Amino acid sequence: MEPEVLHCSEHTVEVVSDSGEGAQKCGQIFGSVSAKMGNGVWTVEIIPAEIQPPARNAAGASGNRIRIGTQTVTNWGDRANVVVAFNEQVLLARHRLEALAEDAVIFLEDMWEKHEDEKVRAEWQAGLEELSRARYRIIRVPMEEICLTVVDDARKGKNMFALGLLCAVYTRDMAKVKAQIVHQFRSKSDEVRERNIQLVELGVRWAEEHLPFRIQVPPTESDRPMVVMNGNEAVGMGAMAAGMDYMAMYPITPATSVSHYLAEAFHKAGGVVHQAEDEIAAVGCAIGASFAGKVAFTVTSGPGLALKTEFIGLATMTETPLVVVDVQRGGPSTGLPTKVEQADLLAALFGQPGDAPKVIIAPATIEECFHSMITARRIAEAFRCVVMVLTDANLATGVQPFPRPKLDPRWQARQPDQGPVPKDTRPYEWDARSGLSRRFIPGQPEGMFVATGLSHDEASRVSYVAATNALGLKMRSRKMAVLSETLKPPEVRGDRSGDLLVVGWGSTKGAIEEAVDRARAKGLKVSSTHLTFLAPMQPGLKEIFSRFKKVMTVEINHSDELNDPFVTKENRRLSQLCWLLRAHTLVDVDCWSRCFGEPLRPDHIFGGIERMFTKGGQR
Amino acid sequence: MQSDDRVSRTLKELAGPISAFRSALASAVEDVRGILSTWRSAQSDSGEQRRAELGSFAAGRIDAERFATLLAVEEEVDAATVARLETIFDLLSDLADQKESVVRVKVATGGVLRDAVAGALARIGRAFGAARVVGLSRARRYEASLHQRFVNEYPYFLWSSSERQIAPPLVVEVAGQDVRAEALAEFLDGRQKIVLVVSGKCPPAPLARLASPGVYVVQAAEPVELAGFTAYQGPGIAALVPESAALFTHVPRAEARSWDRLKIARLPQEDAVIRLEGMSAAWQRECLRLLQELAAAPPAAAAGPSAPDRPASAQVDRLAAWLLKRTDLQGL
Questions:
Q1: Of the candidates A34, A293, A360, which has an alpha carbon nearest to the alpha carbon of residue A172?
Q2: CA gap B276, A94 in Å, rounded
Q3: Same domain, A171 and A141
Q4: Using an 8 Å Cβ cutoff, are A40 and A75 in contact?
Q5: How many helices (H) and strands (E) does chain A have?
Q6: A33 contacts A173 by C-beta, under 8 angstroms
Q7: pLDDT tens digits, residue range A567-606?
Q8: For residues A131 and A100, what is the distance between their CA atoms, to the nearest angstrom?
Q9: Is residue A406 within 8 angstroms of chain B, CB to CB?
Q10: How far is A159 from A16, CA to CA, in rounded Å?
Q11: Would the pLDDT of A163 be above 80?
Q12: Would an 8 Å CB–CB cutoff place B44 in contact with chain A?
């Protein structure tokens, strides 16, 4: 009998297992194949905070969510429609987080029912009882039993079996699946690759023999060549495209994979990845390289940013161009290394003691992770300043297809000027209006000077005269005003005026826009705008805000709830962009923020929007 | 001197490294084309130039015209620099168009082999010189009095270590009587390969004196025997010799002694050696003897570690004991 075909414009899949069982690899391959077939894709890794958590533990759930669509997909969606779970405990974890759709189809490994350990059997029974209260359609799959026909250790095979099962359900192009497996396991032997393909074929066969349905999410043919990558790879590739050929870093989750990518790419194309002895040394090396004329940058995450604080001040003081990429994670302190937050904004802006003006930009998509590096380099060099690029764990590990960038030699055209310096020109000969000055490179004829982090005059001579320090502060700050002069107001999505304007930044863009679209479809007068330049801020915000009755930021960082004990309107701590906007515009901006360690879901944001329209709202 | 088919067969054997150089040359041409186009457009429209430099992330967010006006303090490229780059573009394009002929050299009978090779490398080196001038121009450090000569001729002694790594192989047709190969030692660096296609009577071991530890040296009868030589990631010299000459291969290997590296396949009789133009028979025989001596393992070679090793290790022990004493860690 022909299987029933369910046609959808988008669908969300999750693969979850214990850590080390390869669910992430399964999800990555499924996502990549879908993207290569022409589907819109957004993937999010589900990563436990521990490196090797105990098996069959809800807190140790590891895997991937893959949302695929006929059109572009901009966020991870609300709930999973199809789940492959390798045990009931990891499934329960997702169930308790309300990550599954009410009518989700769940493929569940059934080996635990007859497990030799009585405790495991009891957990299985209890777990299934809890799950039975929902309306899921649970399909038991003997994954272990089938995989053992090919491999000795089924823990090393179930992920490929699951991939085959999903590929059959979603009718993926098997030639592309096999090619992706060959690519993914390119460093392994032919035997390993062939065994993985065999396991995929077993999964396909099982689905063909047992499942009476298929799900069709038709791809759209693109007229432009596309690339598929995650945000960290995009940052690395963007850095290369921008002509950056020196990266100094110290490993830190979730930023490290930028260096993995670049180490491989620089090996072929030329360039240096310098793994320094610590975060401070890394930023110091990047500053030194830039001072010497290289196009250098450093990459880090929250705790690393804290360690780099003083040196970022040094780059500001010496006016050494520097790009710092901060892949934000949950904090404070070491916090939640593998989970997303947007909580470094204020630290990035105000982290340095003393006044250290710098540029902060935040890409909103994986494509923008690539292109933001080009802009960051240009601004850093033109203004002799620090440019911080704030991405986050959601962008870093998420995978999305986007049009292949057409490399432009002009991205790298401008080189440090090493020509002879006109006699008597000083290294900080600030233009009185703009604060801009010519950058000197060591070795430049007539350009020798002693750089210092101490207060200095235009000739870089240490000066403890307060007026000299005041002039330096003024000139470094003036550059931000000059850059601000070149910025354009942000675009407003939706009506140009209304009841509520939702303001976001960074990776939340897709989820916010989807939520706002839903609200507008329900007749609410809501629009949104997304800020890319956080410092200096894009102009015109006050005027835009004035067209709306209420303005609310949506962010992944902490803000107090007004109904919580002791929290009043006066002492309430707000989310980070909210603080900034209030200070910048003097508008009574409100906020809705959550930091559950996962990306925001459109339906949660929609709930926040609806609440603003009710009497019990936070305003 | 007539060209023989060994030259074309040798070029075929060396196709890999030749094509690597040619593709580096082609990408240099494209790079310069890109820079030129950038500079030309910068001269005509600085707003468009800034827009491109800022990338698409800035589109709709930064006013490129305003950016250009405010940053007018940054110097633009002058016409002389653009003209210089145009000359370089022509030079590189010309070198790229020469295809295989750029790596072929013919030494006229009676000519000086060393000078012919030096001249050919200096001509090829113009590609490297041109790249340097491009870099200097982009950094505004170009000075005609110092740097103009780089594009006219860029002799081997000026090549940097990285340039010596991507140097193309050279195929040199030379008469046997002119093979003064020892004079080529100065060119055996980086990954430079030189193949001498020898015609007529020649000394029996013209390359023997070049068999130093890191240099691949081979005297062969046919180009097909050059596979190992081509694949070697270091400097090398080969000679395709007539029947009267020795056949041998010297393959550099870490830790190996000369007799492990050198294998002789054919050795002519010493008394068959005759005087050639400017090369005495005695001198040629001396080369042949040197070759034999390098290839012969001394009887003691197989006897294991030699006696002097023991005192060396004793010295190390003494040094370690002294260090422990100094750091008060004795007895741990």
A1: A34
A2: 89
A3: yes
A4: no
A5: 20, 22
A6: yes
A7: 999 999 999 999 999 999 999 999 999 998 899 999 999 9
A8: 11
A9: no
A10: 10
A11: yes
A12: no
Contact (Cβ atoms closer than 8 angstroms) between residue A67 and residue A417: no
Chain B contact present for A539, CB below 8 A: no
- Please say whether the dihedral angle defined by the alpha carbons of residues A256, A258, A264 and A268, taken in this order, is positive or negative: negative
For chains A and B, CB pairs below 8 A equal: 87
| Cα A195 to Cα A28, A176, A177, A202, A206, distances in angstroms | 18, 17, 14, 11, 17
Q: If DSSP states are collapsed to H, E and C, what string results for B182-237?
A: HHHHHHCCCCCEEEEEEECCCCCCCCHHHCCCCCEEEEECCHHHHHHHHHCCCCEE
CA–CA dist A330, A54 (Å, integer): 22
| Residue A617 is assigned to a structural domain of this protein | no
pLDDT digits (tens, 9 = 90+) for B316-330: 677 766 666 666 554
Q: How many domains does chain A have?
A: 4
What do you get for the CA distance between the two ends of chain A, in Å? Answer: 58
**First and final CA of chain B: distance in angstroms?**
77
- Which domain-ending residue is among A216, A238, A253? A216
CA of B14, closest CA in chain A: separation in Å?
Answer: 22
Shared-domain flag, residues A451 and A569? no
Question: Cα–Cα distance between B62 and B68 in angstroms, integer?
Answer: 11
Write the CATH number for A540.
Answer: 3.40.50.920
Interface test with A, best of B63, B70, B162, B163 (most A CBs within 10 A): B70
A362 pLDDT exceeds 50?
A: yes
Contact between residue A271 and residue A265 where contact means Cβ atoms under 8 Å apart? yes
A264 and A344 fall within a common domain:
yes
ipTM: 0.92
Chain B hits for A418, CB-CB cut-off 8 Å, are: 139-141
B293, B207 Cβ separation under 8 angstroms: no
> Which two structure tokens, joined as six digits, stand for A442?
């060591």
pLDDT digits (tens, 9 = 90+) for A19-71: 989 999 999 999 999 999 999 999 999 988 777 788 998 888 999 999 999 99
Pairing of strands A80-85, A100-109: parallel
Token digits for A263? 């180490």
| Residue of A375, A395, A486 to mutate, testing the B interface (most B Cβ within 10 Å of its Cβ) | A486
Contacts of B37 in chain A (CB under 8 A): 409
Interhelix angle for A466-486 vs A309-318, to 10°? 90
Residue A155 forms part of a structural domain:
yes
A275, β-bridge pairs? A249
Same domain, A460 and A594: no
Is residue A237 domain-shared with residue A250, that is, in the same domain? yes
Domain match, A253 and A400 both:
yes
The tokens describing A253, both together, are 């989750």
Give the torsion sign (CA, B10, B11, B13, B17). positive
Q: Which residue of A has its CA nearest to B33?
A: A409
- Measured from the Cβ of residue A443, the count of other Cβ atoms closer than 10 Å reads 12
Residue of A nearest to B61 (CA): A488
The SS3 call for residue A80 is: strand
- In which domain, by residue range, is A467 found? 417-486
Burial state string for A251-269 with b = 16 or more CB within 10 A and e = fewer than 16? bbbbbbbbbebbeebbeee
CA dihedral B155, B160, B161, B165 (to 10 degrees): -60
Q: Look up residue B128 and give its two tokens.
A: 């490297």
CB contact under 8 A, B58 and A375: yes
Distance between CA atoms of A491 and B57, rounded to whole angstroms? 14
Instruction: Tokens for A443, please give them.
Output: 């070795």
Residue entry with tokens 């992430």: A24
Does A292 contact B at CB distance below 8 Å? no
Q: Do A534 and A514 fall within a single domain? A: yes
Give the residue from A486, A505, A521 where a domain finishes.
A486
Residue with tokens 């540029």: A359
Checking if the pLDDT of A230 tops 90, the result is: yes
